[in-house]
Every structure is written in structure tokens, then in C-alpha cells.
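Lab notebook page, bench 4
Experiment: in silico fold of construct C2
Operator: M.H.
Input chain length: 391 residues
Purpose: comparison with the prior construct
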Amino acid sequence: MRTKYSTIILIILITLIFSLNTMALAAESLRIDFIDVGQADSILIQLPNKEKMLIDGGNNEDGDLIVEYLTVLKIDKIDYLVATHPHEDHIGGLDNIINNFKVAKVYMPKVSHTSKTFRDLLIATKRKGLKISIAKAGVSLIDKGDLQVRIIGPVKEDYKELNNYSAIIKINFRNTSFLFTGDAEAEVEEELVASKIDLAADLLKIGHHGSSSSTTLSFLEKVNPQYGVISVGKNNKYDHPTKFTLEKLNRAGVEVYRTDQLGTIIAISDGEKITFNHKVPSISTTKIPNNKVPITISNVNLKDEIVLITNNSSKDINISKWKLFSLRGKQEFIFPQGTIIKAGESLKVVSGRNASKDKGQIIWTKSYIWNNNGDAAQLYDLKGNLIAEYY
């Protein structure tokens, strides 16, 4: 295994030496290393009280890599080891960590798995005589002075999707804050938004490697991050991060750092500002809708399958043969000849089993179009110009 990773480890060592020289951890600073483990997660957090936290341990083959990484940093103890959920790309290397370092506390959600990877983790904790604490909303790890570390999810214990059991961790250090979401998906994000939990964070670890199953618009608005970090592998088979998620982050003005582009990402907070070991790559600008045409998509009701298109002008507008496009499903609807939206009025485009052609409504299809976990709509005119969009 070491032979396979010898080149990678050498690069990491050089990077670390540079980072340690140029980003020396000042007293009472917080350092977060998003270790490049490809299509997986492993996050090392050096807290200002000198304690160390490790969130996840990559895939099975990443164990030696992470051990080497911690060793170079002269870390011999993990105070808080968090296995966000039992998928192999999050817990694969954690048995290596437990076998090679002192571990004070282990946190895992109350859910099991039948995989050998999960059994290996349980065996390692048992051999070390470690007790597993349940990771769930309401658990406080640290609450002292300017530092608070809390687990704010999972909220429930009966999810159908294993990703939704992900341990979600919120860290506040003076005037900076951080949110780590594992692979939690839209269902959990909606629960958190509906709760009274303060989700605001300067840095958000983007959920599920940038999959479209996570980072719903309502959740993103609630967190309102300045920075986003995506742990993801190059040219992965899942097409992560999705263009849909990147577009939402772009429109929200989030600076996105990706391990597939930058390698290991290090963020350091002095309690007032956050600095990185990389500059964020420039992002392509999105085509701006043609604002000369006073048409807007004023709402997309994903649950009820209703799109509201509004004419904001004082004249009727003919949208015959215009195209309404669903970004998630990549489906399109061409408006029939004679479709006119009167001045100051709106037109509803309905779909789904209960769609009916009432006044002011037009049926797209009896099939379901809009993804309840997050979707977006775009409206194009006859010439293919983007006229309006709704995220």
C-alpha cells in the first residue's frame, strides 16, 4: 500500500513543509485540513485549545496515507474521532487511525452496516477499549469561552437513506464559524432549516461531495457561507460535484475550494478571518438572463409541481414556442402556439398526476417533472436566449 502511495505521500510531505513554514499555527488559532483522499472525506481539525478532531478517514486504501499525514504533523493523539456514517468512503481508514494513535473519544451515529469495513472499525475500537458515543443533535463536545463544538445532526434515528444519518458538526471560534455535513441530503437539510438551530457559518463543507442530493437552496441561504469546500475525486464516476450544485454556489457568491483541483486544502482561522493555503480558482461566469424582456419565473413549487411565470410589463407578451427547462431532469416543455401572458398577470405551468387545465394554467405533463430535493427552471425564447431562471 505504501508503494502505491509513495509519490502521493512525498508530494504531501513537501506541501506540508511549505504549509507549516508559511502558515504557522499561531497561538489560539484553529486549523482545518481537508485531506485529499479522492472521492472520500477526511478532515483534521486542530482546535485552539490544542485538542485534535478527525472527521472521517477516507476509503480503506487511504488509511496509511492519513497515518503518514498525521505523523508528519507530529500528532500522536486524536481527542475526538468522528465517523459521520458507515459508508466506506468515510470510515475506511479509521481502523488504521485507531490502531496507530491514541484516541480519547469516538462518536458515531446510531446506525449499523453489514460491511467488512464497518466491522473492522468496531473491532479496532473494541481492541483499544474505546467506548462509542452516539453522534446526534444536541450533543456538545466543547463549550468553553470563545470555542463551541456541537453535533447538530442527525436529527432523527429512522432515516431510509444511510447518508442522512451523517453526524453534522458546527464549530464556532470567536467570530468565525464552520459547518461539516458529511453526506447529509435534502431531507436532513430541510429538518435543520425548520429547526431553531443557528446554521450560519463562514465555511461550509459541501454535503455529499457536491452531489445534487444535497445543498438545497433553502439550506444554503440559511448557512450563507463565504467559503465552501468540496472533498471529491478527479473524474469520478458520479459526476461530482454536479453542475447544478456548483451553479447554486456560484450564484450565492460562495468561494469554492475543491480537493480534485487543489489537493489538500488547509484553512486557518485566528477567530476573525479565515485564510487558505490555496487561491480559489477563477470560476466561469453564468449567462445572465435577457432583462430587456420583462418576464420572470416568480416561483417553482417543487412539491405541487407548479411553475409561475409572470409578465411584469404593461403589454401582453406572446411566449408561443418558448421553452421551459428543468435543470435537474433536463426535460423541456415547448409552449403551444397562441400562449400569451397578459400584462401584469401570471401563467401557471403544472405537471404531475393531479395537474388540471384550470384558468391561467397550462399542463406540461401528467408525469412528475420537478425533483423535490432541489431543482431549478430556465425559460428560453424562440432564439434560444435565456430570458428568466429560478433557483
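Observations: The two ends are 44 Å apart (CA to CA). The chain has nine helices and 25 strands.
Next step: discuss at group meeting.
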